[in-house]
Amino acid sequence: MSNQGGGTLRAGLIGLGAMGRNHARILSNLDGVRLVAVVDPAGDSTGALGVPVLSTVSELIDMKIDYAVVACPTALHEPVGLELAANGVSALIEKPLAQSVDAATRLVEAFEAAGLVAGVGHIERYNPALQNLRLRLEAGELGEVFQVVTRRQGPFPHRIADVGVVMDLATHDIDLTSWVTGQEYTSVSARTVSRSGRLHEDMVAAVGQLANGTMVNHLVNWLSPLKERSTVITGDRGCFVADTLTADLTFYANGAIDTEWEALRAFRGVAEGDMVRYAIPKREPLLVEHERFRDAVEGKESDIVTLRQGLRTVHVAAGLLESATAGVTVSVAPSASTSASASTVDVPASV
After folding, report:
1. Is the pLDDT of residue 338 over 70?
2. Are 258 and 264 spatial neighbours (Cβ–Cβ below 8 Å)?
3. In terms of domain of life, where is this protein from (predicted)?
4. Buried b (16+ CB within 10 A) or exposed e, 56-76
5. CATH number of 128-281+313-336
6. β-bridge partners, 187
7. pLDDT tens digits for 258-271?
8. Where does the chain have alpha helices with state H?
9. Which helix (DSSP H) or strand (DSSP E) does residue 142 occupy?
């Protein structure tokens, strides 16, 4: 459906879990949008939504919605998304796009064939610290980028049952790293462990390389009582540290002051310089994500995470799982040739 003629968009929500309720809160107050109904077979125990709670996606489609937000479990993204695409409904699908490269590919093809607006909810792209960081990297403030290191850890989220920490949490870091640097992954290696008694992995240590040679490290788990969301990018002129929990961005500059200590002067390294924490506007990332998607559905120029970008992230995540299982480094082909068989085994991994 298209809304290029203007007017209020009719939106639906599929899934009333923890993230679904956040989407409902935003949709209920979003300018130019009316939340008309929600789909969740379990109903609404709070009764606070003020809109009908339906049992099936087909009932929602019958209400002539312009777009739907898909916030159901990851394993259901494919069947729900395909039903929406087949009925001409645009969709914002929570990350990850799907639980496998095959499923994600089918979603991409379905929405593209139908000519519909569709996006993936990689919310970190709308974090103020990372948005500001990306602008600074594009302006060349760091010079050449040497390394991207992310840490994403915290307690187990009981909302997750159908995927492990790689598909659920590490997809955040994969997407934000590629987006912030403007570079795609070319190879990945990983080690995973499962300590919580679940079928899926709950901790991963990953090493990757981007197309320009930048080294990448990701540490992700949901086994820690310490909640941490950190992105550190090191380059020619120093390093940026983004804390996406607080949306703070700090720059540590390389020093330009010579040392008189002969032993240190002989070491051709960098010196500590000035530290700056930037004052940046801090709007809620989920609200910004919804505003961008609404604008796209209205036919306006808008920066959304496309399904093909979401597919690329699933492809890299699948490479991490393949690497951890086989104990090898996995090459991930450029996105133009992303397919179910686009990864190839290289050499034994070393993490």
Report:
1. no
2. no
3. Bacteria
4. ebeebbeeebbbbbbbbbbeb
5. 3.30.360.10
6. 209, 331
7. 555 565 555 555 66
8. 18-27, 57-61, 77-86, 101-114, 128-138, 165, 171-181, 262-265, 285-297, 307-326
9. none
128-281+313-336 matches 9-124+286-304 in CATH topology? no
The amino acid at residue 296 is A
For the domain made up of 9-124+286-304, give the CATH fold: Rossmann fold (3.40.50)
- Tell me the one-letter amino acid at 310: G
- Dump pLDDT digits (tens) for 69-82: 999 999 999 999 99
116 in Cβ contact with 81 (< 8 Å):
no
Write down the residue that tokens 């940026």 correspond to.
Answer: 240
**Could you tell me the residue ranges of all domains in the chain?**
9-124+286-304, 128-281+313-336
Distance, CA of 76 to CA of 99 (rounded, Å)? 9
Strand order across the 228-235 sheet:
272-277, 248-254, 238-243, 228-235, 145-153, 215-221, 203-210, 185-193, 328-332, 343-348
Check whether the bond before 96 is cis (ω within 30° of 0): yes
> Which tokens go with 91?
């969709």
